[in-house]
Amino acid sequence: MKKLNVGMIGGGFMGKAHALAYAGMPMFFWPAPAIPHRHTVVDVTDELAKNAAARLGFDNYSSDWRAVVENPEIDIIDIVTPNDSHAEIAIAAAKAGKHIISEKPLARNAAEAKLMLDAVRAAGVKHMVAFNYRRTPAVALAKKYIEEGRIGKILNFRGTYLQDWSADPNSPLSWRFQKKIAGSGALGDIGTHVVDFARYLVGEISDVMAVAQTWIPERPLQTGGADKLGTVKGDNEAPKGAVDVDDEFITLVKFANGAIGSIEATRNAWGRNNFLTFEIHGEKGSLYFNYERRDELKVSFADDPADSRGFRTVYTGPAHPYGEGLWPIPALGIGYGETKIIETYDFLKSIASDTSVSPDFADGYQIAVIADAILESAEKGVWVKAAAELAEVK
Amino acid sequence: MKKLNVGMIGGGFMGKAHALAYAGMPMFFWPAPAIPHRHTVVDVTDELAKNAAARLGFDNYSSDWRAVVENPEIDIIDIVTPNDSHAEIAIAAAKAGKHIISEKPLARNAAEAKLMLDAVRAAGVKHMVAFNYRRTPAVALAKKYIEEGRIGKILNFRGTYLQDWSADPNSPLSWRFQKKIAGSGALGDIGTHVVDFARYLVGEISDVMAVAQTWIPERPLQTGGADKLGTVKGDNEAPKGAVDVDDEFITLVKFANGAIGSIEATRNAWGRNNFLTFEIHGEKGSLYFNYERRDELKVSFADDPADSRGFRTVYTGPAHPYGEGLWPIPALGIGYGETKIIETYDFLKSIASDTSVSPDFADGYQIAVIADAILESAEKGVWVKAAAELAEVK
Amino acid sequence: MKKLNVGMIGGGFMGKAHALAYAGMPMFFWPAPAIPHRHTVVDVTDELAKNAAARLGFDNYSSDWRAVVENPEIDIIDIVTPNDSHAEIAIAAAKAGKHIISEKPLARNAAEAKLMLDAVRAAGVKHMVAFNYRRTPAVALAKKYIEEGRIGKILNFRGTYLQDWSADPNSPLSWRFQKKIAGSGALGDIGTHVVDFARYLVGEISDVMAVAQTWIPERPLQTGGADKLGTVKGDNEAPKGAVDVDDEFITLVKFANGAIGSIEATRNAWGRNNFLTFEIHGEKGSLYFNYERRDELKVSFADDPADSRGFRTVYTGPAHPYGEGLWPIPALGIGYGETKIIETYDFLKSIASDTSVSPDFADGYQIAVIADAILESAEKGVWVKAAAELAEVK
Amino acid sequence: MKKLNVGMIGGGFMGKAHALAYAGMPMFFWPAPAIPHRHTVVDVTDELAKNAAARLGFDNYSSDWRAVVENPEIDIIDIVTPNDSHAEIAIAAAKAGKHIISEKPLARNAAEAKLMLDAVRAAGVKHMVAFNYRRTPAVALAKKYIEEGRIGKILNFRGTYLQDWSADPNSPLSWRFQKKIAGSGALGDIGTHVVDFARYLVGEISDVMAVAQTWIPERPLQTGGADKLGTVKGDNEAPKGAVDVDDEFITLVKFANGAIGSIEATRNAWGRNNFLTFEIHGEKGSLYFNYERRDELKVSFADDPADSRGFRTVYTGPAHPYGEGLWPIPALGIGYGETKIIETYDFLKSIASDTSVSPDFADGYQIAVIADAILESAEKGVWVKAAAELAEVK
Question: Per the count of CB atoms within 10 A, which of A60, A93, D118, D383 is most buried?
Fold first, then answer.
């Protein structure tokens, strides 16, 4: 069985998730398409990197990502850094002939994403963007129903991603609130996951019409080196810095196939934690999913008898997508880890079998085009075409 | 205790609901502000009207609504007819000095609604539009929380009204699908309830930006005199007639106070029955309501301790709005009937105490302005001001 | 259409519910089997009775129930008094040849219930016990599925009735906490509703094995004449009286047909309001119902395809039991009132068509036998036969 | 950082879960109390063991568990085999001075469990039983609330564990249906998890009174070597073998502290997958948990204001037990893997810090005593003392 050496750039929360996936994937999907080997982890200082290697089970560590990208032993570069470094690392990795998986959003904007797409295409390497939520088995089951025609032609999509970790004005000014690092706010951070759902399940988005707001214009500056998610209380008395990204947006969407819908994301919704949902109405049925209860997909079929029609709550397990590799009983439990394990499985399969995987950098680029269109629409108050370059992309 | 004689124009499903409310209101709210007496019911033929009187407990019946409107014994005219007759009846009733309650939407469009508003104002009678859902105790509780500042300044509102009774292309061409009778489709029929929620709970809507669709362009013509709701299967082989109203719309909304949001309504959502919901995010908390589970209001407070913060599911009962008059234990059960009983109570209180009641014809007119703006926006693809005449209205 | 004159003994909360049902029933079920006419209401004083008549729409009032029972104009005696007077009134009414509907539980114990059953049988009148919850359309739908064999042979039944209105030790010593009036506590008050579900849906209960507890041994005495439900805060400083009934019981049950199960009821479950639920497992499917969300029945069918099997949430409406008479769209909303309207409909139908109705006094007696057996089992710690007299009863 | 070598006996589904936990634990809890090293895995044949080692990331493999138990390099023996081998392996491992974690139930019966307890006590090694579900953060949060007195003195506990993977009569005769291997059926397999919850959250169970049933008396024999969970369809035509364990049981329970309750488990509940729930009523509040929605704990506090009292849905995250080590946002997602990672963390902490951990073999033994009492009670129809040996155990 082929072993593929991974160089992972970043050792934070997302690095933990990816490391767990590398360790666990072959345990779930066996025979594995290839064995991912945790070769080298990179963090900003040697000390942090050394700690990350011990913690995450990598053989080596480094504070020099360029050296790791150039290391001929490395097969895969895994980018789990803040958004502003994705492009530079990915382009270098592509030039070095590495397969690349990058955290989402692919880049801070479409222009940057396009450079990345051009680079991986030129290099002929495999590429993936880590919109992991679509790999929740219940979401994959929704896709299966749709492909089998079980809810008919799709009319409507409503997607939301609501959180509350930054609803407190004293939650610190993480990089996620800074445009120069993040590109955008709730839009890039979480809204793009919903855009990914919409494109995956319904089809290409052609037009958007949005509003966006920054509810909390400044937040306490962080002290200490580490970036904090807002769940850590900020210092009330600390000096503050400006937030220059959106806290919330809502957009109407038109799909190329005629469906309509809306997408909403906010990090200021008290009581919502990871409320990533979609509801889809088709001519023959409906679907509903809420990641907070991610083992479940709700589906209603029009052709059920009138006296027993209603949403079915299906718990995913062995009879559903990826079920052969996961747990033997439904609701034994899909966690964040399992979504990343499946993602890793599909990425390694694409490398081992020399096939493409979705979502790839072309998807990531198209999502960036849509995100840029959402911001433009919110600013100008007009419908904006979101798929202008689509033909060229695919 | 004063007795007020009711002349009810219409003997269909909604007439049933109102008749039950007239009979039941004093049983719940005692001492009643006044006793509504079922004096005369009107239907399109004498036979139908006679039947309605027997069934609904009216002393008299008639097929001549004008005569009833002119009858000096009558104090209140209750309009429960299709939308195209609201204006004519209401204007005549106002001229005859009757207090008026009209089913929603107030009229087919804003121009018609304005004539009705002018008429009741000129006559100095009491007037109400029957947006009964806001009288669900859980919705009134949401209003109470908001007024007490318990969720802080409102940032966002999302409202939906999803049904599936006309999702089947063979459901018959009820008047609800005909613009000349209904004015609009899902918008006027159910979407206006959500607009009423939005204005009641958040404040005035200033701008809208919408999409709208007619998914099923023609439906089987009805046979027989009676109008059928779509839950009755239409005849597959019957000749068909055109649908010229919206099956679905989604609109972005901006509120005058700076909040943003979206409103969506459709009658083509398989599995949704009376899915009238709102979610509101404020600076200090959030609210969620779903009429399908109408005894419940969900509320999350920001200032709950971090280890026990989350949406509370509050079942309304004696400790909540209207609780003194309803059932003695929460979840004993609010049905459609109770919402109409509360509505009747508030309307009669306004007459007995010579005060205004909300929503009145000014609200009904403003909602019609918003509905017209939604259709205009959907057609033109631009933001449309929805509150142009507001200052004049209030 | 025949008119039946009702003499209602009692003018409290339950009298309100019944009065609404008499007024509303013909509005929903038309042609009505007969028209119930609110002839005379009885309360403990003339003043209370006069008030009740005005409030509840009765033509006459009285403080002398015996006179009303004897009144030849009266066709139906409706007993909505505390439990200790059910037997005396019912036996007198039977002797006077009146049809009788009695609130639940039928009596304080089986011996008393047996006298009532003997009396109505001797008189040949119609009789019903007001276990109204089984008339919730979703519960009637469960019965329909079971009768159609759609969940197969039943294996297991779990029923609960959980409330919290008396969980506060300062809630007053209502008659519901006094054995001489109530007979038993949570058992008779709410537990018997679950026993009614169990017998209705599964079959006869043959054996019980129970535990019971009185968690709060004394409560503040009530001041003033009116009995208060515990949701009214008692007076902390008031003198206290002893509670001599159960606050809670749990019983294992065996059914004559081999199924097993458990029943639990308490009024000390903080956060539960009217949590009347059942879950039933059959060889071919399962059912779940929670009255707090009473428009819904959940059903899972074994023969659904493995990839889309799961509980369906069915909202009752026109396609379900009683749907022809209720509201035209599912989830428009069943409240407590509607359950009583259906009950009245079925009772009047039994009179008009000279057929029996269920649950009748034989059911009420058998439920009392089971309740007595539960208390005996809880006291002695042994299994107790609950259906000894069943053959004689039916 | 100390490394502890693990010898894992068993390479099936549960071995996968444990292997993931060994790999992942230090990624989550850092600094880790010790690093668990996957030294050797044992399976029934060399080929299976070799495959398991490759798949699960062990350095070595063996088909001779005795040799592994004796291997001086091994620090921890992890028993993930069917129930009938737990005792023999554990006793041998104890004699060899190894720390031991055993899958649940600890043994087939109390007598066997007692031998295991005696062995680990004599050897002075650390021991744990893998009742992992109590390590779900939401369950640990329930424990925290209880310990802080936030729901007051506990009155009632109701626990269920409902599954449907063997509801189909053609699901194969896994070892889980054979008394000689499993000891008991639903009771040992899943019911003991509920018993663990009850003891963990409420206190010691003193008496039980149960019913038990075998609904499907025979099932198709398995073909091929591997044991199959019932979700794999059995062969209709295959020869059948007898089931000699319970498919379902329900038991009343009395706790030593005066609380009462019930516990129910079945694998024949169509539509229930991993419906492991508890509801607890205390004098000051209530708790509800359902593992199918395991990120949530519902809690109702009596002292909330009357107008906003109701169950709160708390999503566990950084502000809750184990939150410092898990994911940074609530509802990012706890899966089965995370529960095992936490279990491993606590077990290694007990070794590293030379402290005891719960549940240990004493707990496992006491649970076996209770399980035996449940079977005895079901057979004899009488209350059975379940804690006779408790004083000796603790």
Answer: A93
Question: Cβ distance D271 to D166 under 8 Å?
Answer: no
* Residue C109 burial (C-beta neighbours within 10 Å; 0-12, 13-18, 19+): buried
Query: What does the pLDDT average to over C139-159?
Result: 98
Cross-sheet strand order for the sheet of C60-62: C60-62, C35-42, C3-9, C76-79, C99-102, C127-129
Looking at the complex, report in whole angstroms how far the Cα of residue C298 sits from the nearest Cα belonging to chain D.
Answer: 10
Q: How confident is the model at residue D387 (pLDDT cuts 50, 70, 90)?
A: confident
Buried b (16+ CB within 10 A) or exposed e, A381-391: eebbbbbeebe
Contact list, A301 vs chain C (CB under 8 Å): 308
Q: Which domain holds residue A261?
A: 134-360+366-380
Q: How confident is the model at residue D391 (pLDDT cuts 50, 70, 90)?
A: very low
Token readout for B23 is 């009979």
Determine contact, residues A205/A198, Cβ cutoff 8 Å: yes
CA C124 to chain centre: 23
Residue A391 located in a structural domain: no
**Sign, CA torsion D111/D117/D121/D123:** positive
Give the H/E segment covering residue A129.
Answer: strand A127-129
Q: What is the pLDDT of residue D236?
A: 72
Positive or negative, the CA dihedral B75, B79, B85, B90 is: positive
Share of chain B above pLDDT 90, in %: 93
Alpha-helical runs (H) found in A71-108: 86-95
For the record, the structure tokens of D22 come out as 């060994």
pLDDT for position C300: 98
Instruction: Using a CB–CB cutoff of 8 Å, tell me whether C140 touches chain A.
Output: no
At B185 the three-state DSSP class reads coil
Pair (C109, C148) in one structural domain: no
Q: Is there a domain that residue D147 lies in?
A: yes
Q: What is the ipTM of this complex?
A: 0.96
Q: Which of C209, C271, C286 sits opposite D209 (nearest CB)?
A: C209
Q: Quick check: A328 and D55 CB within 8 A?
A: no
Interface of C with A in 195-254 (CB under 8 A): none
Same domain, B278 and B182: yes
Q: Do D286 and C270 touch (CB under 8 A)?
A: yes
Tokens 């509201």 -> residue: C327
Using a CB–CB cutoff of 8 Å, tell me whether C324 touches chain A.
Answer: no
Contact D312 B314 (CB under 8 A): no
Residue B21 tokens read as 């409310």
Do B224 and B95 belong together in one domain? Answer: no
Domain boundary among B131, B158, B179: B131
Res B226: pLDDT: 64
Q: How far is C204 from chain A (nearest CA, A)?
A: 27
D168 touches chain C (CB under 8 A): yes
B339/C231 Cβ within 8 A: no
Please report, rounded to a whole number, the percentage of residues in chain D having pLDDT higher than 90. 93
Q: What is the pLDDT of residue B392?
A: 47
Q: Model confidence at B1, in pLDDT bands (50, 70, 90)?
A: confident
> What is the number of domains present in chain B?
2
Which CATH number fits the domain that encloses residue D190? 3.30.360.10
Confidence of residue B279 (pLDDT cuts 50, 70, 90): very high
Task: Name which of A384-388, C87-91, D119-123, D374-378 the model is least confident about.
Answer: A384-388
Residue A371 token pair: 């995100």
Cβ distance of D213 and C286 shorter than 8 Å: no
Q: Does the distance separating the beta carbons of B55 and C231 come in below 8 Å?
A: no
Contacting chains of B (3 CB pairs or more, <8 Å) are A, C, D
Structure tokens given for B168: 């089947």
The better pLDDT of the pair D230, B118 is held by B118
Please state the pTM of the whole predicted model: 0.97
From the list D252, D260, D268, the residue with the least C-alpha distance to D189 is D268
Minimal CA separation from A99 to chain B, in Å: 42
